[in-house]
Amino acid sequence: MKKNIIIAAILSMFLVSCEGILDTSPRDMISDGNMWSNTSLSKAGMDALMYPLMWNVDGINDLIPSDGRGGINRVGMEGMGYTSILDGGIPFLKDATKEADNRENSAEWRCMYTVIHACNKAIAHLSSSILGEALYNEYVCEARMIRAFCYSRLVMVFGEVPIYLEETDNVNCTKTQNTWDEVWKMIIDECTDCLGNAHFQTNNLGGPRMCKPSKGMAYALRGNAYMWLAANMNPKIYEGHAGISTSEIKNYYTLAAADFANVKASGFGLWDGVWEDLYSYKNEHNKEMIFPLEYSFSLGFSSIFQWVIGSRSNIDACWNRLTASAQFVDDFEWADGSKFDWAQVFPDWNNLQPGEREVFFCRDSLDTFAAEFEALGSNASEKAITLSGQRTKVISRVGQAKWDQYYLDHGNEARLRTAYDTRDPRLNKAVVTPYKKYKMHNEFLVNPIDFQMRWPRFKRQDDVDDSDLWMEFSSNMVYAWYKYLITDGITVNRRVDGTDWPLLRYTQIQLMWAEALVGSDDVEGARTLLNEIRSRAGMPAFTSTDPAKVLEEIRYESRIELCLEGKDFFNEIRWGTFKDKKFDGADTTSPQSCWRQGGWKSGYYYRDGMWPLSAPLKEIVKNPNLKKRPKDWLY
């Protein structure tokens, strides 16, 4: 279908990086001297600029490698956000004292600067005499926009980073960090210059540079810069930063809104098909995709995302490294737009200890199975023997009295389903919820079959229709992701996923546009944009005209629409809600089960100085001009 990037992958070996990540690559194929010497090699070199973002690893225990070879930190950034839990933990969250050499710091820094220096090299060596004026300008703008995207990521993670806009060798990477304002201004200037270039494509929805940077992307990046400048490194989360005036903030929002409107004018727009189909391989080239990271189904050029989402029942032995957070699942509104509350389903919910609520999530017929086992002993069915023992364990946890009071041998599942079936329709499409049939596919199957997430589980049966979904975690019930899961059999290899990854997509931009309109006092315009997204999802229009409530609903839609896309961490930081959401407003918290019991994975520690992240320790050692982050950072 797409993507002949073999030459691009070869060329990427020769891109200069101040981190030295690529220095061990063999140099016996295409030399630095002739890499940009003709049109075809120049095109391959441009296509190679994105390749370091898609590097991946084969080891399950090193999904976020610190040497930069993990590509864009897709898994780590999603796990750092509110909507997901990353199994195995993230030192940035788990360590009470944050270490400057943790993998989150290094992975983001090294990958982004590898691409930045590759872009600098391309800009320095591209030739208008070889390419012609039009193609030369197109390529230079592409490289500048990829570079601007990487700087946007860096400043959103580290707050202040060094700016390199010229080709630089390893010895001369000696700059200190530029200020927050300086980095954002540079990004704005880069976007503005490219927007003024008549040869830069308006959008990337077709033509020879399909899916490559465009003016629509430049508007999106510049608008994002204005949004972060309006946030002004919120002093709630970044101590000691001086505020800016209300009029300055309003002006930034006005500028951002104008840029986001121009993204739409450039030809991008909301996906107008079925909501869940947007995230499929077959529909990856659509008007939402402002800036995608292009994968293929070839090893070395594919995503490993199927390895970390879903369940072991799909694409044999997925590892469930990323699961949907229970707090996030509980955020999904009722179908009428009102706030969800478990007490509306189980009136005694708030009177029970979190562990006691497990009784509400148990499968039907456990008492029946226990009676069968009691009557027949070892002659009982395998299911009765297994589930009778599981029932005994549940009762030991919740207590016999609570079991007798709340468990329904017939109807427990149906009662629980009322908490999911009358909610925002996106819930059951994005997340695997209990006692609902979901199609799964693995190497044992010709066609996908139904699985259900039940508790307690019976046993793993990958080729039995309507079997129990087999999650990796046996001690607790947690939510699996269904969004982005490949279930149609186009691959049964968990390491081979060719679905493109939206680094920027239009829904994200429209939600920021609505947010900017609230900030510039156009609440009605914001509600219109918000309700277009809600209508597509099958949700009722939001009718309040209270700016604070409209803003909160925009944040709700952002969390729901952009879940599992690595965007939430950046949003929560910019909004100043990171502690309230990821940490439940406390200094310590723990990932929770479906019934909101903590402890299934080790806890998280919040510190006021944990964001922005510190420059990686290895970079500080190599470049003593880099400043260390104060407060609770270990060097």
- End-to-end gap: 48 Å
Uncertain stretches of 5 or more adjacent residues: 1-16, 20-28
* Class computed from helices, strands and strand pairing: mainly alpha
Q: Kindly estimate the percentage of residues that lie in beta strands according to DSSP.
A: 5-15%
Assigned CATH architecture of the largest domain: Alpha Horseshoe
Compute the number of helices: 23
Global mean pLDDT:
90
Helix fraction bin: 40-55%
Helix-strand blueprint:
Elements: H1 6-12, H2 39-48, H3 51-54, H4 74-80, E1 84-86, H5 91-94, E2 98-99, H6 103-125, H7 128-131, H8 133-158, H9 180-195, H10 215-231, H11 246-265, E3 289-293, E4 322-324, H12 326-331, H13 366-376, H14 382-398, H15 400-406, H16 412-421, H17 426-430, E5 431-432, E6 438-440, E7 449-452, E8 467-468, E9 480-481, E10 501-505, H18 506-519, H19 523-537, H20 547-561, H21 568-575, H22 578-582, E11 588-589, E12 604-605, H23 617-622, E13 633-634
Helix pairs in contact: 1-2, 6-8, 8-9, 8-10, 9-10, 10-11, 10-18, 11-18, 13-14, 18-19, 18-20, 19-20
Question: Could you explain the architecture of this structure?
Answer:
There is one protein chain. The chain is mainly α and 635 residues long. It has three domains: 1-180 and 609-635, Serine Threonine Protein Phosphatase 5, Tetratricopeptide repeat, CATH 1.25.40; 201-294 and 500-571, Serine Threonine Protein Phosphatase 5, Tetratricopeptide repeat, CATH 1.25.40; 322-481, no CATH class. Helix content is 40%, strand content 6%. The protein has a three-stranded mixed β-sheet, with no helix packed on it. Strands 1-4 form a two-stranded antiparallel sheet. A hairpin with an 8-residue loop joins strand 6 and strand 7. Helix 1 crosses helix 2 and helix 9 runs antiparallel to helix 10. The radius of gyration is 25 Å and the shape is globular. The two termini are 48 Å apart.
